[in-house]
Amino acid sequence: MKAATLNKFLSIFLLPVLNILTAFIFTTLLFLVIGIDPWEAAKILVQGAFGYEEGIGYTLYYTTNFIFTGLAVAIAFHAGLFNIGGEGQAYIGGLGVSLIALGLGSFLPPLLLLPLAILAAAAFGAAWAAIPAYLQAYRGSHIVITTIMFNFLAASLMVYLLVNIFSEAGQGMPASRAFPESASLWTWQTFMAKWGVEFAASPLNVSLILALICCAAVWVFLWKTRWGYELRTVGANPEAAIYAGINPKRVIILAMLISGALAGFVSVNELLGVQHRLVLGFNTGYGFAGIAVALMGRNHPLGVMLAALLFGALYQGGAELAFEIPSVTRDVVVVIQGLIILFSGALEFMYRAPLQRWLLSFAREV
Question: Is position 86 within any domain?
């Protein structure tokens, strides 16, 4: 077996599995320390995430958001960029959705209104990512610093808009008025009913299909198009890319525009599919969790999809666990997620060197 094939097998399969198993071992130790039966906790978590239709619906609803933000981080990473501004890009994407839904909802039918709102989510998310992209490409500002700063700017801007512009008099919380009925996506229950299949009510909606389409589109873009090749070349070796006639500045702008658009799609799931109004903090947590999803999924759309499903299961199963076992608070669930992020991100290469030696010796014997 060739060394390149072994390294690919190691990076795509063995390392993620070992990292997740290590995180679960430490989670088991944590449960033993706080006096909880790990096996019982695991059963409750899995049952809560996949054991009944409503739980599956919630799991896939969370998964949808993680797919969007995971793909956003992944496509920027392929260009050598670390976009940690998914929170802000998703938030501003919600502003685009709301402007279309509230401004045109009374005039346009759903067949026109919903595609326009989805495009607005992508356009506003991309526009918010374009400024850090320009600063990185043409002013030398580091993308990590600018994107995290823009998260805070987006939060402040949305608070101002919700309190002073969008909120209605007499409301108890900052939120816009309800979107018109024509600006609502089908729930998964309604969608399945069209095919004669019953499904329990949950926040899951047809934006899951949009997330799967995005996975396929990102794969095609990265590995089947000239633009994707240029993007990956810049990420792998900017000097070689320049020598080959590729403009890294243009690639940086392109990568961040696509990344911001993908993050903006979180607002499609949250606002058009669930909330049906612009609300404060609908994006909270998804952008930063998307970083872990991308790292765990090795920045590949299929890996991102599987990692997003794992995090969706942890969100839903963790909520069930906190409900069934009072001593397991949401903080414990956050610790579990943190352990997975730790071993899949910061310590992801802990096993690489010994595994490489073992696999190479195994290959020589074979």
Answer: yes
